[in-house]
Specification:
heterodimer, A: mainly alpha, Fumarate Reductase Cytochrome B subunit, B: alpha+beta, five-stranded mixed β-sheet
Chain lengths: 209, 260
């Protein structure tokens, strides 16, 4: 019996060290690949009929021409949607979202933003997200949902007309889709930068500890 | 500035040519994956070697076929494309093609006949005056281009479903395949369920005027539940068939169902 108890303690001691469980890591990197494919092919599609007075440089687009970009976009969307849906379900079901991302209080956010800007924000305990992280991670999940919904509206504006109505009309859904992409790119820059500034957080997302 | 996006792109000639060039698949499109393959992340996607562009292309083609099936599955034959008031019509409605307006087919309406082939009881060809006698309805719907821009237009013509019944078409067949007067043989297959959709129309008029050359004189197939390239202009024949005969853009990689 005693050996069994020991084993349990050892196990929980190891468990306690795990910052990012396996499912989070697998889904995180799957999402990273899917997002990059969606963004680069999306830029190719954007270039066919730009919404604004600029195009994305050809070197940063995927597919070679509009048809190729569309093929990539409508292939990678399955990876993004299936993985994203699994992430949302698991995040809610395991209580991870509630435990890790809530609460988000304005005073907490203000305090941590100030601390971050003066480089006083500690990263000693990676299992607890600070308020800046909570806000950004929760925010990017909302943006992720919006970009999928606006994308579906553009893909199936007749069959999913109620989704289009949610955004107003088809052209508006295009703008929403674009600005969500811009928000994700901005997030990506900050996210990657911080991962390199706090390398142990990157390590945790790779090996879990 | 905001209006610049799709209104003028189809009107301003210089922009138009620029757009057309962009839409034109480049000669190296067979290797279209190669351009993106240098991005190391791609190797993570599948077990196959994406640097070998043909295997990536095969993978993408199978996913596109899978997407055809998914779209056919979620296609609701009774779901109508939204219609708009006349005030919503985009003016001027963009001319759009992979060639300049001067190179658009110039069909002589007096000589033109619509050829009807394949699995139909009555294979007679139809002249324009004969077709104009059929009942017509007007629809104001949104045309959505594969490029992303869209424009609202007013199209008048005969329900394709009614015409197919009139000629005794076998509506259990899989496709209605359209051929056009374009010199390089524009064509496009339409799945039968979409062909029978209540809004799918043999269009003879735009904005209550006889269809101008820019919009496909003498006949266009207006399919508000499909992307623009599946709305063939300058149509010369329709064939009811069970064979997938491919299409001008479909063969180059645009998704074949491309439904809205």
């Amino acid at each position: 019996m005693s050996s069994l108890t020991m084993t349990d303690e050892q196990t929980s001691a190891i468990r306690a060290k795990v910052i990012q469980p396996v499912w989070v890591r697998v889904m995180h990197w799957t999402n990273a690949v899917a997002m990059i494919l969606m963004i680069l092919s999306g830029w190719q599609i954007y270039n066919a009929s730009p919404l604004f007075g600029f195009s994305f440089p050809r070197e940063y687009t995927l597919g070679g021409w509009l048809g190729g970009g569309l093929l990539w976009h409508f292939a990678a969307m399955w990876l993004l949607m299936v993985n994203g849906l699994a992430y949302l379900v698991t995040g809610f079901a395991t209580g991870r979202f509630r435990k890790k991302l809530l609460p988000i209080t304005p005073s907490g956010v203000l305090h941590d933003v100030r601390a971050a800007l003066t480089f006083k924000l500690g990263h000693d305990d990676l299992t607890v997200y600070n308020y800046v992280q909570r806000l950004l991670y929760a925010g990017i999940i909302v943006v992720g949902v919006l970009i999928v919904l606006s994308g579906l509206s553009m893909w199936k504006p007749v069959q999913l007309y109620y989704l289009v109505k949610l955004f107003g009309d088809y052209p508006t859904a295009r703008y929403v889709h674009f600005f969500c992409m811009a928000a994700i790119c901005a997030f990506l820059v900050v996210h990657v930068l911080l991962a390199f500034l706090v390398p142990k957080s990157l390590r945790a997302m790779i090996i879990g500890r | 500035m905001a209006k610049r996006s799709f209104l003028i792109s189809g009107v301003d000639k210089r922009l138009l040519i620029k757009d057309s060039l962009k839409t034109m698949p480049d000669l190296t499109r067979r290797r279209f994956i190669a351009g993106g393959a240098s991005l190391g992340a791609l190797t993570l996607l599948t077990g196959c070697d994406v640097v070998d562009s043909s295997s990536a292309e095969e993978m993408l083609k199978s996913v596109s076929k899978f997407n055809d099936a998914v779209q056919a599955f979620i296609f609701n034959p009774d779901a109508l494309a939204p219609t708009f008031p006349e005030s919503a019509i985009t003016k001027p409605f963009p001319f759009n093609a992979y060639y300049d307006l001067d190179d658009a087919p110039d069909v002589d309406g007096a000589d033109w006949k619509l050829e009807v082939r394949g699995l139909v009881d009555n294979k007679k060809s139809w002249t324009l005056p004969e077709l104009y006698k059929l009942p017509q309805v007007t629809q104001i719907t949104r045309h959505i281009c594969v490029e992303g821009w869209s424009a609202i237009g007013s199209w008048t013509g005969t329900s394709l479903r009614d015409f197919l019944k009139l000629v005794g078409a076998d509506t259990r067949a899989k496709y209605v395949w359209f051929q056009c007067a374009d010199k390089d043989g524009y064509n496009s297959p339409l799945d039968m369920r979409t062909a029978l959709h209540p809004q799918t129309q043999m269009t003879f008029k735009y904005a209550n005027e006889i269809l101008p050359r820019a919009y496909g004189f003498p006949m266009k197939i207006r399919v508000p539940t499909k992307l623009g390239f599946k709305n063939p202009k300058y149509v010369v024949s329709m064939e009811v068939t069970n064979d997938y005969k491919g299409g001008y853009w479909e063969d180059q990689g645009y998704n074949s169902f491309s439904g809205s």
